[in-house]
């Protein structure tokens, strides 16, 4: 932190005194962050957001009197501010977290990955980096929520094929990589893909295992294409979207006649499970130039290596623009490396994908 950087002011909302203390200690271990208040339930949280005007709120989902989802809705209506949800790694917790992301929460922290974790150093560093990235983009994030509504869904966009907008790449497969801010972005893309899309789509979203199952089920219910969590041995079929399972790596194996998905633990030295680079590198090896890769909002540079190989093979890379990204890390890395053929707001990505067929 430099002398010119403002202190990031955070409100911690959790019914557990232990979690309030643990999160506060973790957050204030960084000199650039100050916990300006805590709240024991959603009702107190809503009032303290109004009074204290924090830069960011951490919000537990399950609380007495007023739960986290109700509090989030009130905050977004009355005093919009970036909210980071604290959620349990259960099926119910995953569903509630996805609801929160639709309502305007920017991201989540799995509750089990708390101060008692054996891997606390990595978890703490990742959370602090994420909070700084979100706080830095607070104005853009809140402008996006105001522009598109608290549900985070941009009004349907059309991108008709323009004169001269012809593509010279035959696309056989689409790959999509996302991290922070990814679920709402995917909800603006996958449901808009045409039912007869003549290519499979492989999606890598950084999430725990239970969450990717719930994400696939939710997207499937909203979409014309079939969406499923990938399973080992799945055939790669047109019109199907495969979500990489949390905690695993998703790759492909292709012969002259067939292609199928491999789901496995993968190399132990890879930071992310699933990892965008692992999937995109695999696809690039087997599909050559016939690839359309999409890099969406997310922290860090995961996807850069994969996008580079896609371009080397002759494929196409689309990057989400800065204005509609929650965290402009992954797309920026691809854009700065001059690998993006197209830089688009998230609401135009689905139509651009469809324009290749």
Q: Short description, anyone?
A:
This protein has 357 residues and is α/β, with parallel strands linked by helices.
Sum up the structure in keywords.
5-stranded parallel sheet, Rossmann fold, single chain, 14 strands, alpha/beta, 7-stranded parallel sheet, 2 domains, 357 residues
Mind explaining what this structure looks like?
This protein has helices at 17-28, 42-52, 68-78, 91-103, 120-136, 138-148, 182-189, 209-222, 276-287, 304-313, 330-336, 349-354, and strands spanning 8-13, 33-39, 56-60, 83-87, 107-110, 173-178, 200-205, 226-229, 240-243, 249-254, 259-264, 291-295, 316-320, 342-344. Helix 10 links the parallel strand 12 (291-295) and strand 13 (316-320). The longest helix has 17 residues, at 120-136. The strands form 3 sheets. The chain has a 7-stranded parallel sheet, with helices on both faces. It has a 5-stranded parallel sheet with strand order 2-1-3-4-5, with helices on both faces. A two-stranded antiparallel sheet has the order 10-11. The protein is an alpha/beta fold and 357 residues long. It has 2 domains: 8-148, Response regulator (Rossmann fold, 3-Layer(aba) Sandwich); 173-354, Rossmann fold.
């Amino acid at each position: 932190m430099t002398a010119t950087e403002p202190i990031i002011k955070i409100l911690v909302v959790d019914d557990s005194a232990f979690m309030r203390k643990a999160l506060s200690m973790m957050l204030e271990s960084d000199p650039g962050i100050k916990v300006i208040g805590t709240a024991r339930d959603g009702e107190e949280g809503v009032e303290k957001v109004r009074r204290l005007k924090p830069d960011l709120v951490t919000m537990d989902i399950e609380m007495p009197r007023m739960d986290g989802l109700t509090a989030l809705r009130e905050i977004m209506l009355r005093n919009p501010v970036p909210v980071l949800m604290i959620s349990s790694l259960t099926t119910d917790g995953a569903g509630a977290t996805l609801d929160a992301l639709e309502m305007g929460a920017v991201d989540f922290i799995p509750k089990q990955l708390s101060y008692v974790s054996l891997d606390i150093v990595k978890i703490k560093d990742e959370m602090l980096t994420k909070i700084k990235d979100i706080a830095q983009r607070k104005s853009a994030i809140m402008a996006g929520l105001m522009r598109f509504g608290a549900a985070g869904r941009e009004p349907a966009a059309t991108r008709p094929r323009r004169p001269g907008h012809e593509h010279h790449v035959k696309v056989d497969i689409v790959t999509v990589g996302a991290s922070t801010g990814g679920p709402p972005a995917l909800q603006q893309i996958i449901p808009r893909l045409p039912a007869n899309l003549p290519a499979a789509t492989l999606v890598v979203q950084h999430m725990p295992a239970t969450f990717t199952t719930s994400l696939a089920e939710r997207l499937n219910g909203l979409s014309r294409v079939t969406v499923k969590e990938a399973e080992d041995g799945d055939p790669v079929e047109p019109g199907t979207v495969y979500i990489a399972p949390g905690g695993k790596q998703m790759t492909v194996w292709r012969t002259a006649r067939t292609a199928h998905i491999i789901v496995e633990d993968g190399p132990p030295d890879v930071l992310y499970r699933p990892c965008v680079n692992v999937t995109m590198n695999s696809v690039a090896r087997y599909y050559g130039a016939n690839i359309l890769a999409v890099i969406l909002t997310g922290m860090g540079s995961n996807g850069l290596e994969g996008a580079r190989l896609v371009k080397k093979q002759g494929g196409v890379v689309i990057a989400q623009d800065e204005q509609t990204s929650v965290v402009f890390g992954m797309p920026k890395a691809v854009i700065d490396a001059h690998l993006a053929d197209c830089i688009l707001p998230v609401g135009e990505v689905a139509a651009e994908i469809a324009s290749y067929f």
